[in-house]
Amino acid sequence: MPSPQDSAITSSRSKITPERAQEFYEAVLTLLREGGYDALTMEGVAALSRCGKSTLYRQWGTKPQLVACALRGSKAATIADIDTGTLSGDLRQVAQALGADAGHDTPLMHAVSQAALQNPELMEALREALIVPAAAAFDAMLARGVERGEIAADNPAREFVAAQLMGAMRARPMLEGKNADAAYLTRFIESALFPALGLTKSP
Amino acid sequence: MPSPQDSAITSSRSKITPERAQEFYEAVLTLLREGGYDALTMEGVAALSRCGKSTLYRQWGTKPQLVACALRGSKAATIADIDTGTLSGDLRQVAQALGADAGHDTPLMHAVSQAALQNPELMEALREALIVPAAAAFDAMLARGVERGEIAADNPAREFVAAQLMGAMRARPMLEGKNADAAYLTRFIESALFPALGLTKSP
């Protein structure tokens, strides 16, 4: 299914269809899972998706940008799409969405974010494609909660919601050897986020 | 300064002094910072610390175990040493200890934990040397808080304290492009952990 991001890329830069872009993204993700970021080459992506390297460079510019777009394209649902009418409902849905991706996405994101720490260009591409939009979506979600009177505007825990969710996803595999699935993340938001934000479990 | 772990290794396995072990650990950390986990070799460590490879194998057994011990040895203070008499005081001290390491340790730990996701032997060595002891130290810290009547025994946020602190350290560099220093971690525990645990800011 074409996503808004794919359409934007398609219309602004070339005649690649969203479906074809998705094939490139799948090739990128396959190669990342197999060998990590450093081993991935534009040649490898081109070979796996049976196109010329120049197509990739024309469309995405650089390897960091291609990788960032592929990771964004692999998300089933974005945080920005969530709007249930209550903040606790929104956060529960975030737990479902992130937990659904956890099985295959966590090792992938670990691999890429580690590479990003040693590669400023990749870090910038990831921030632009994934992190800044997600953080803005959390801010908007919390602002709606403030508007509806569900949390105080000056609640100091607001600053840490995105970091806590991103952190819990990364920490559980290390601590417990298990992915942060939807059940874990739901327990996490209800036990740790809700009390800090002053929310109750009932929606 | 010799740490208890170094002494244990020294007495049980060989005649290497704690000071000499520390030199090996420094060599390991230098090589990890330069090239990451995969590029590190026992030969490289031996060359940099001017010893024979066999010394390393005799002392630490395997590369994963050497790396795990080097990371443990690099910690200025362990969580297990913290005992201020109050849970909020203990957690504040955790924020100081983790924040002090953040500048140089975060990229290093990212690099190694990423490698661990694709290397079960390294994951096991890290869990044994670092993660299980840290998680146990948090459990003991929280149990003391329960005994002193500072938090309820069935407080559901207890489960997530270690994951939240580990997570916040990893998430901030991605979200904000900054290390999780002591000021950030202190703000984090006071704004997010304390309310979930039912602790107040005053100790």
Describe this entry's structure for a reader.
The structure is a homodimer of 203-residue chains. Chain A has 203 residues and is mainly alpha-helical. Helix content of chain A is 73%, strand content 0%. The longest helix of chain A is centred in the middle third of the chain and has 31 residues. The first copy, chain A, is elongated, with a radius of gyration of 18 Å.
Calculate the terminal CA-CA distance of chain A, rounded to whole Å.
32 Å
Order of helices and strands of chain A: HHHHHHHHH
CATH architecture label of the largest domain in chain A: Orthogonal Bundle
Can you identify the CATH class of the largest domain in chain A? Mainly Alpha
Question: Which two protein chains have the largest interface (Cβ within 8 Å of the partner's Cβ), and how many residues from each?
Answer: A-B, 42 and 42 residues
Globally, the shape of chain A reads elongated
Share of β-strand residues of chain A = under 5%
Helicity range of chain A: over 70%
The figure for the number of domains of chain A is 2
CATH superfamily of the largest domain in chain A: Tetracycline Repressor, domain 2
In oligomeric terms, what are we looking at?
Answer: homodimer
| Helix segment tally of chain A | 9
The profile of the biggest β sheet of chain A is: none
What's the total count of β strands of chain A?
0
